[in-house]
Design a protein that fits this description.
There is one protein chain. The protein is an alpha/beta fold. The chain folds into 3 domains: 116 residues, Nucleotidyltransferase, domain 5, CATH 3.30.420; 62 residues; 111 residues, no CATH class. Helix content is 60%, strand content 11%. The chain has 13 helices and 7 strands. The chain is globular. The N terminus is likely disordered.
């Protein structure tokens, strides 16, 4: 009986995040709103602690950078924070017959989503991982700008070529600064440094891809092989209905991580003996090249997951 009371005393909290405001709603119908600032988030933390029930989950949608401050501060205080995909929440709302969309309604839907579906509470990114993620994002932006300016330089009239070239030179110096900052951030963390050494020991996987994994996949080494594959989006899902048997396809997941693993699989399928043999065997069995490459991506991810979990360097004979 006591266990039943304890279970009933737990509530879920939904927080609808916008640029300036946080709308909160609990599953026992208590609402409140706060400004999306560090001072008001501390007030929000005090409000949560003052509730008469234990908080089972605090559910927020992934909203660019607007949710990060609130989620980080809540997680730092030990609250069970879950950041979910907005598409999943909207589909849940439609399934529940909730068609209206306001901040208050969205907060209530998030609370109900947490209570009824119990989304898993995953490890939250540490400050170092968030800084690495921000630097990697900036690195991608700079590379895209360098590529765009280099393409313009080929067709630009002579009168503006000098200016375009000067901009390219400036962007390249910015890229060097970002790379130095990434190196410094990793050097400051023994955990990151050790993980990076383990990941880069796998032949075919470069330093930038390894840093990408550190920043955007903190769950690496903490989940089993099926869950980590589904989380990244390299796990094929069945498509069957009645007599229909569709092709299994990968879907969803973390695009940034998947892009890095794809490039690693391209290299490993040519230069890593184990992955190369695996890739060639799939082709001999009649698998299309893209399907074989996705299988290599999944195999690399599973191997990396085991390596990080066991803090073990790459040893082909032991895989």
């Amino acid at each position: 009986m006591q266990e039943r009371v304890n279970k009933m005393s737990k509530i879920c909290v939904g927080i609808d995040v916008s640029k300036d405001q946080l709308d909160c709603h609990t599953t026992d119908d208590i609402s409140h709103h706060f400004n999306n600032t560090e001072t008001d988030i501390n007030t929000l933390i005090d409000w949560l602690r003052g509730l008469n029930h234990d908080v089972d989950r605090i559910v927020l949608e992934a909203t660019g950078r607007y949710h990060s401050l609130c989620a980080c501060l809540l997680a730092k205080e030990g609250f069970p924070v879950v950041v979910v995909n907005p598409r999943q929440v909207r589909d849940f709302a439609k399934a529940m017959g909730v068609l209206a969309k306001t901040d208050k309604v969205d907060a209530k839907v998030l609370a109900d989503f947490g209570e009824k579906l119990q989304p898993p509470i995953r490890s939250f990114k540490e400050k170092q991982e968030l800084l690495l993620e921000a630097q990697l994002l900036r690195r991608r932006q700079i590379i895209e700008m360098i590529t765009a300016e280099s393409n313009r330089l080929k067709i630009a009239p002579e009168s503006i070529k000098i200016g375009v070239q000067e901009h390219i030179n400036y962007l390249r110096s910015e890229l060097d600064d970002v790379d130095k900052t990434l190196d410094r951030l990793i050097a400051e963390s023994e955990v990151c440094k050790q993980k990076l050494a383990v990941i880069t020991s796998l032949k075919g996987l470069g330093r930038v891809t390894a840093i990408n994994l550190l920043a955007n996949l903190p769950e690496l080494g903490q989940l089993n092989h099926k869950k980590i594959s589904a989380l990244v989006g390299v796990c094929p899902f069945s498509r069957e209905s009645g007599n229909y048997r569709g092709k299994r396809m990968i879907w969803g997941g973390r695009a940034q991580v998947r892009q890095g693993i794809y490039m690693a699989a391209l290299v490993a399928s040519r230069h890593n003996p184990l992955i190369k043999t695996f890739y060639e065997n799939l082709l001999e069995r009649g698998k299309p090249k893209k399907v074989a490459l996705v299988a290599c991506m999944r195999k690399i991810l599973v191997i990396l997951n085991a390596m990080v979990r066991d803090n073990r360097y790459w040893e082909p004979e032991s895989v």
